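Exercise 7. Predict the joint structure of the components listed below.
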Amino acid sequence: MTRSNWSVPETEVLQRVHERLDDDSADVLATIVDVEGNAYRRPGAKMLLDEAGDGVGSITAGCLEDDLLAAAESVREDGRPELITYDLMDDEDDVWGLGVGCNGIIDVLLEPLTETYRPAVEAFADSRNVAVLTVLEGGDGPLTRGDRAYYHPAGEGLTTPEGTPADEWPAALADPAAVLAERGRTDTIEVDDLEVFIDGLAAPTELVVFGSGHDVGPVTELAAKNDFHVTVVGFRGSVDLEDRFPDADETVTTSPSAVADELDLEERTHAVVMTHNFIDDRLTVEQLLDSSVAYIGLMGPHDRFEKMLAEFDDEGRTFDEDALSSLYTPIGLDLGGGSPYQIAHSIVAEVLAVSNDRTPRHLRTREGHIHDRVTVDSPPQ
Amino acid sequence: MTRSNWSVPETEVLQRVHERLDDDSADVLATIVDVEGNAYRRPGAKMLLDEAGDGVGSITAGCLEDDLLAAAESVREDGRPELITYDLMDDEDDVWGLGVGCNGIIDVLLEPLTETYRPAVEAFADSRNVAVLTVLEGGDGPLTRGDRAYYHPAGEGLTTPEGTPADEWPAALADPAAVLAERGRTDTIEVDDLEVFIDGLAAPTELVVFGSGHDVGPVTELAAKNDFHVTVVGFRGSVDLEDRFPDADETVTTSPSAVADELDLEERTHAVVMTHNFIDDRLTVEQLLDSSVAYIGLMGPHDRFEKMLAEFDDEGRTFDEDALSSLYTPIGLDLGGGSPYQIAHSIVAEVLAVSNDRTPRHLRTREGHIHDRVTVDSPPQ
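Solution:
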């Protein structure tokens, strides 16, 4: 199979699912729905398996995939979703343990890719948060494995795809779904004997890069590989931004004073300011400090920002502590690199840490799990 | 000009210089020889400019390059090296200051690319440290701007390219050259009225990745972009490693017990262990702990390493504190990402920080200069 497709940005996996739905393919979607102990990937990790045996995305570092292909084949044939458990608890177990090298039990849901998944990929394509609810065990109720419902933050309660069971979904699932959609996390909720996997698909984190110098290229490239939705903003005569920064999802050419009007500067927006033009940087930073963006990274030495603050002060412009605390200059983590790619690597690493609310440090010094575990309260039984 | 060539890994710039020397080209080499204040790049940053006006590498984030092309043209015509100073101290200066956005004075040496530079690129190609000594000001002595000498750690004292002044080089330059070659840093040394730029070209940092799972791909790709010399080591039936990991400089297929024999595990070697096979990982880690490698990153949860230590203990194997302190598990910086590329980004970020002797943290919390400044004692006058 095409191993090169296994390690792709997560955004590409969902884009591929979207394409294959449009192709009316007979693909099988594999999703990790539970991990006990440790594993390479966390619940929600997806892999799309096609009839040719090619896979896009990965749910382990490799050793389960071949077995998954066989399992996918049977799911494709009898057309019914399957829940498979891989017990990797025993590292000496040479069937699985050696290959994965972690102590974990992994539950994987395999299902034929159908139209019932379209609302998920369409929300993702529109950068809307969404929670995908999938029945793992129906128990004695009318719902059966693979039945699906959605929670859209903009809507009210749960919605179900056309032609699928609607009334039977417990309304109590909406609250946990709302939390998971917002945070892009997953959990499995039980209501009586109904067991539902809730897959929160948060819209990709927004990264807006202000600047059009060649040093913007590596930042855009590395950010896209890390699943950011990247917008490159050029000023004045910036031309060919799409051609020069092919990894950008969007490009905008505007004037430094129109930044706040032209762009959606939201709480989930992360901004990197690297125009290398003091006045353009100052105009941009001023509007960013007035906005609610989560992160403002400013390239250049700290005394350059001090000069900016002095000029703001002369003009009577003041900013609250929260805004100023969101500004990082010099930009990036202290990794010691000096080449364009090393600088970009340290910038993207900083944005990753901030967007994930992490304190950058060696993982060996961190207590607890590497991956966040979000657990929402189960609704009253 | 081809802006896409500006942001390339530094290793590619020197590889390109090597190729162009072989092509007997009429290119011009630009090197930052001094930075006062702050700038995007540090001394030693290089850019190769060809007759067509294409540049490879970058010495600023963009705005100086066009002027450099003009300057390069005149250097190409009269065939003599030139030293150009760009004063960016005044950020309001709309000729340069606005474009670079840093308070700095940058000295750039422009010289026709000649055979006198070949020893530098050949040492780099062979992964040998070397210091390139270039005369900036000859003063009243016989040496003139652009005259060149080399310090090879393996050799004795300074050597000079054939057909260039040899006896006139002050022997006192050998000591600072030795330090700079080792550390890959630069400095300008004055002996009486002779001014010499010493460019230490340390061999690329060695990164050895143990494993052949698809998750090795993103690690190899991102490490290569960050100028590591990457070797992928596969065990047993690993096939097609070159095809599967095209960004690797070398690939080796061996047995887990032969790691120490097959590979040069030196002090500048950084190792990433991600075979996802407990026994293979243990055998590899044991040999790495017995070696003098600078860094051992082990993928997997910490309790997995605890189990390894317990087994070493059962076998009566012990390791000293230094060795154990070089082992990082879970591997990577705490950036919070969970996709294959995010995991790889955090691994490469950790190796960068360790290889540059940095404590990973936000640069805004760091005191002093972003770039290391190495100053070696000037020889007695």
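Discussion. The longest strand of chain B covers residues 28-37.
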